[in-house]
Design a protein that fits this description.
The chain is an all-beta fold. The chain has one domain (1-175): Alpha-Beta Horseshoe (Leucine-rich repeat, LRR (right-handed beta-alpha superhelix)). The chain is 2% helix and 23% strand. It has one helix at 138-141; strands spanning 5-6, 10-11, 17-18, 25-26, 39-41, 48-49, 62-64, 71-72, 85-87, 94-95, 108-111, 117-118, 131-134, 145-146, 158-160, 165-167. The strands form four sheets. A seven-stranded parallel beta sheet has the order 1-4-6-8-10-12-14, with no helix packed on it. The chain has a five-stranded mixed beta sheet with strand order 9-11-13-15-16, with no helix packed on it.
Length: 175
Amino acid sequence: MEEETLSQGTVDSAGNAVIPEGTKRIDDEAFISMDSLVSAVIPEGVTEIGDGAFMGCDSLSSVTLPNSLRKIGGGAFSSCDSLVSVVIPEGVTEIGSCAFEECSSLASVSLPKTIELIDEEAFYGCHLLSKITYSGTAAQWEHVDLRSEWRMEVPAKYAHCADSTAYLYDDAELY
């Protein structure tokens, strides 16, 4: 059976993303700038959200990600100004560059212990992001590949891990 990709998203009259059963990948820019989109419940079976898939959806305030998800593409949710919190499920290994960039209302993010890479500027400009929770241990957090400026202009200073707290070093402090 061939992998099914949703290339062009639609929104129902209640503001919900319409994602057909059997979808494995939400394509690049599938829902880009859909101002009427308020909620996206990504169904089980989706393993990847493409680059810019929900970029600029200003009214998007609720996103539910499936346990089947493995990768969030670059800019996937950038500039979603109404998004307040996001729980990234266990199984996700990669958050692409600028994935949540400039989400001006984003205040909390929960990251899974399966995360291996948080790419450049993934949370850049999320000025209200004050709480980052990580389901793994502080020792596991040390092995996550945190790329340059992944949290630039973010007020959070710690990752709240399962066993303790890990300090989030600013890029400037590493040199």
